[in-house]
Amino acid sequence: MAHPSDVSTVAGLQLFEAGQNETPIVLQAYALLCDVMGADRVEDIDSFLRTVSTSTDDAVVPTLVCAAFDDRIQGVVLGAYLSNLGVGMILYSSVRVPFRRRGVYSLLRSRLIALLKSTGRRGKVAESDERGIQMQYLISELEPDSELSKTYLRRWGAYVAPCEYEQPAAQGLPRRKMDLVFQPIAAHSPPSRDQIAVAVREIYQRVYRMGEVGRNVQFRRVVESLHADAGPGQGAYTT
What is this structure's pTM? Predict the structure, then answer.
């Protein structure tokens, strides 16, 4: 397996960014995601190849980071920079069981954040627009009450958006209730509800490539839950 020249090695583990044209590596990454997460939680292969392609949508810049040991991929994180929002998003992340609890996910995640930040700084936006200088948030869809979600909230200061978020039924994926989590990167506070609504629209339209988002029942349900009047102690951010 060929690796870029800037590979870093930690105890025999190699971290590297894989480009869309490195088809064998992309296919190995896809196979790992299906094996570890389950095929029902990963989009179909044709859709995945579009997701990792930089030519699919000018407003979405994908980044695939892999961890290899003995020339076999053991961990994957796929993210994207959403240039219309000035935020990054983690789309998929998986580490094989023998390499868990050894800091592999943290290494992959740190490398991904650095690359997404760099993408933001290179973004073609107006000089007065600070989103083109610093990435504001890192967004993730996480299983409610999962250990990873707890880590985001407790260790990385993330916020769960106060809405009934749903991963949409698209790209061969079923509808699934998830937590939409915002980790501040350059931002100093949680996003507003209006910012979250805009982010959900962008995710549905750009990441999941859904047409007529404004008419989509799932999208409207999420936004309505976001702006619904909350009773005492409800509708607040979870940290």
Answer: 0.87
**CA–CA separation, 140 vs 178, rounded Å?**
10
Rounded Cα–Cα distance for residues 32 and 56 (Å): 23
Residue with tokens 């990385």: 156
Phi first, then psi: what are they for 65, rounded to 5°? -115, 135
Q: Which two tokens stand for residue 75?
A: 């961990």
Helix runs in the chain, H state only: 23-37, 45-51, 104-121, 147-155, 193-202, 217-227
The amino acid occupying position 208 is Y
Under the banding of pLDDT at 50, 70 and 90, the label for residue 173 is very high
Tokens 């961890």 found at: 67
Q: Round to whole Å and give the CA distance between 171 and 42.
A: 9
Question: Distance between CA 196 and CA 222 in Å, rounded?
Answer: 10
Distance in angstroms (rounded) separating the CA atoms of residues 73 and 28: 7
Which residue is it, tokens 């000089």?
Answer: 127
Whether 219 shows a pLDDT value over 80: the answer reads yes
Answer whether 200's CB lies under 8 Å from 210's CB.
Answer: no
Q: Which residues pair with 166 in a beta bridge?
A: 177
